[in-house]
Design goal:
This protein is an all-alpha fold. It has four helices and no strands.
Length: 101
């Protein structure tokens, strides 16, 4: 029973090495941008300069989300539909609604 609960709450997805490397590179760049903003705050930089960098990070995160969503649809969603699991469509709709607020 514990194994079943663990599998339900913690789904996993195998990612090809190229995809994983690309995603990690994106996250590393975003992490660097965030550290840059932290330094800007510590250095008492001008508000507009900080806001500009925050906007760049938001754009990078949105791009990351689009990449993950596209990969999810092309792999997880397609595989589930092919296996007859149409509940994945409801999950996809709910997920998209969360991001379109």
């Amino acid at each position: 029973m514990a194994e079943q609960l663990e599998m339900e709450c913690c789904k996993q997805k195998h990612r090809e090495l190229v995809e994983k490397k690309d995603l990690l590179n994106r996250l590393n760049r975003i992490e660097g941008q965030i550290r840059g903003i932290k330094n800007m705050v510590e250095q008492d930089r001008y508000c507009v300069d900080i806001l500009t960098q925050v906007s760049a990070i938001q754009a990078a995160l949105n791009s990351f989300n689009r990449e993950i969503m596209g990969n999810h649809i092309k792999s997880c969603v397609v595989e589930n539909i092919q296996e007859g699991n149409l509940e994945i469509v409801d999950e996809l709709c709910k997920t998209m609604q969360k991001f379109m607020k």
